[in-house]
Amino acid sequence: MSKSYWKRVIGLRIMGLDFGSRTIGVAVSDPLLWTAQGLKTIKRSPAELAELAEIIQNYEVTEIVLGYPKNMNGTIGERAEATLKFGKKLQREFPLPIIYWDERLSTVGAEHSLLEADLSRKKRKKVIDKMAAVFILQGYLDSRKIKDENLEPL
Predict the structure, then answer these.
(1) Which has the closest alpha carbon to 131: 150, 154, 151, 111?
(2) Burial bucket for residue 106 (CB in 10 Å: 0-12, 13-18, 19+)
(3) pLDDT in tens, 124-141
(4) 3-class state of residue 53 by DSSP
(5) For the chain, which has fewer Cβ within 10 Å, the N-terminal or C-terminal residue?
(6) For the whole model, what pTM was predicted?
(7) Does the structural domain 10-103+110-148 have CATH classification 3.30.420.270?
(8) Over 60: is that where the pLDDT of 14 sits?
């Protein structure tokens, strides 16, 4: 079977991003869109878009889920404004759908998971943004599954 056949059957991948002031956590879905795997943490720099472009190409990404950090009361703060600006930058660079996903408590959830794994503070600091991207992307993937399960059969 050809590679294009399997792409149609299995699907392509979705990338999740946790945009921070110093780093960007990156996760990608499996080809069946069931699970999110942490990929890497990118340091914010002029080369960040080139690194993202390489990931998009290598993993054949078809959508980007960008964590949208609303305040706990649902208002939009400074971090959310910076995320919107970054999302516009992504949209100009990559012709892919950008989905803004409410990421409230994603970093807290990631921190709890890393604490349960008994990682040292130093190790947690290195992977927290990547894990937050996993939480963001997994939340989005789970919501898609629920939506698909609620569709009426033909």
Answers:
(1) 111
(2) buried
(3) 455 667 888 998 999 999
(4) helix
(5) C
(6) 0.79
(7) no
(8) yes
